[in-house]
Amino acid sequence: MVLASRTDGWAAAVGRTATLTAVTALWLLPWMLFVTLNGGLADYFDRAIEYAQAEANASNLRSWPRLALVPGRPLLGLERPDRPLAQITWMPGLADAERASTERRYGLEFVREGDDTRWYYVRDASDGNLDALAGDAHVAGTTGLGRVHRPAWRELTASMSPLRLAPALHSAANADAWLFWLFWGLPPICAAIALRRAMGGLERWRGEVAVVLGLCAMAAMVNAGFLRDTLRTRLADAIVPAALLSAWVVGLCWRERWRLRSLQLLARLVTIAVLIASCAAIAQIGEWPERIERTGIDEGLEGVLARARGVSAFLGRPHRQDPPSRIAAALMPFFAYLDRCTDTSEQLIVTSESPEVPVLAGRTFASDGVVLGAWYSSVKHQDRTVAALRARPPLFVVYTDGASFRSRFDMIEPFIRGEYQPLADLTLDGGGAVPILVHRTRTPVSTDPSTGWPCFR
Question: For burial by CB atoms within 10 Å, which of 35, 111, 234, 395 has the most?
Fold first, then answer.
């Protein structure tokens, strides 16, 4: 706003900025009052800084991303045609000779071994062969047969795949590094161009320089905050300022006529090369082939409609029908018990990074967070957490990841040990158990016939 108002004088710039600040503060006033009455602003920011420091310590990049050549692949050369892979899970106990015979029958070309499966190229992608393969008695399951049978346009793009350049640079790590440095390179480049245009009086519209420099500042802050480990999961969070700056700088190359036409031609070639490399990197980290197959687009309208029906049916199911973790799956009997034997006003403590547990339980979390894990509750202010728990003790504790909990929350752990006693240990798939604790002083009114546990309503 200051930059956009500079031609009207600094008094106007300061006045408009002060007005914007005052209006923003007015809109924030209800939130500030709410936080003040529920713990205080100072405590709020103190805890926010604590969480941010913990997040930074855990997820900051340990080294700068670097481009590296893939061993054994040429920097300039051709690649093999793009051939989709199918994943086959064979029946347990199947003899190697019988499996090899089945592979030959269906035209399966072995590529690599997985944990419980094998990956293949399928030479015969006809519907009859794929249907017979999926229904074969020796096959326990298949994944990816839909992408093996591809429409003509995808076969055409596959046949053109050997024309890709620089196969030695085609790797996920290089895709991460390219986009990381592109995101960080755009703000200083665009800021320098914008300042030069401002000094030369070349603004195409009022406020152009202000908008671009504001985007540069925003992009730098977004990059600093979002581009952390694991990088490929964070890049999408920082895309908006980078996309807007890219659109602006590309527009300068293609929408305006430069005095040096040869320089403009070179700039246009550079933008094309950068765009191609960026699309390739995005396709790499975004797993485009798998996501396209998941949507059903490659199977036409019927595939898209089938996907829509499947998603709709999935969203219509209760949360508990599809537990998202081993812990949630093990706790399913406990969730049903809560429905039978407790009121919905009862609360839980969860001592690990399992925020799905209160959701699936249909019970709120006690105290000041979502769960007592690394990101959700304050370590520095444990005394306040204990005071809140004593004032309104929750009925149950889901005591997972006990060693980590004890090391982090050394004031809350003695409270739980003194106030709660074991109720049950629920077995985890693959080994281990989830202990459930119940408050010592709560008196049950009956016994649950399904589990033998005490009922509290």
Answer: 395
Strands 347-350, 364-365: pairing is parallel
Burial of 35 (0-12, 13-18, 19+ CB in 10 A): middle
The candidate with the shortest Cα–Cα distance to 229, out of 290, 180, 282, is 180
Edge-first strand listing for the sheet containing 108-113: 108-113, 118-122, 86-90, 139-143
The H or E element containing residue 266 is: helix 261-286
Q: How far apart are CA 253 and CA 260, in angstroms?
A: 12
Q: b or e along 318-351 (b: 16 or more beta carbons within 10 Å of the residue's beta carbon)?
A: eebeebeeebbebbeebbebbeebbeeebbbbbb
Q: Show pLDDT as tens, one digit a residue, over the chain (457 residues).
A: 888 888 888 899 999 999 999 999 999 999 999 999 987 898 888 888 888 887 787 788 888 999 888 887 777 766 666 677 888 999 988 988 999 999 999 999 888 887 678 988 888 888 888 889 989 999 998 888 877 776 666 666 666 665 566 777 888 899 999 999 999 999 999 999 999 998 888 888 888 999 999 999 999 999 999 999 889 889 999 999 999 999 999 999 998 889 899 999 999 999 999 999 999 899 888 878 778 877 888 778 888 898 899 899 888 888 888 888 899 999 999 999 999 999 999 999 999 888 899 999 999 988 777 788 766 677 888 888 898 899 999 999 999 887 888 888 899 999 999 999 999 999 998 888 999 999 999 999 999 999 999 999 9
**Number of neighbouring beta carbons within 10 Å of residue 151:** 11
For residues 350 and 400, the answer to whether their CB atoms sit within 8 Å is yes
Q: Which residues contact 284 (CB under 8 A, 6 or more apart)?
A: 170, 171, 172, 175
265-268-270-275 Cα dihedral, nearest 10 degrees: -160
Between the alpha carbon of residue 55 and those of residues 41, 173, 190, the distances in Å are 21, 23, 30
Is 320 within 8 Å of 339 (Cβ atoms)? no
Q: What torsion, rounded to 10 degrees, do the Cα atoms 68, 71, 73, 75 define?
A: 30
Amino acid letter for position 9: G
State the burial class of residue 174 (Cβ atoms within 10 Å of its Cβ: 0-12, 13-18, 19+).
buried
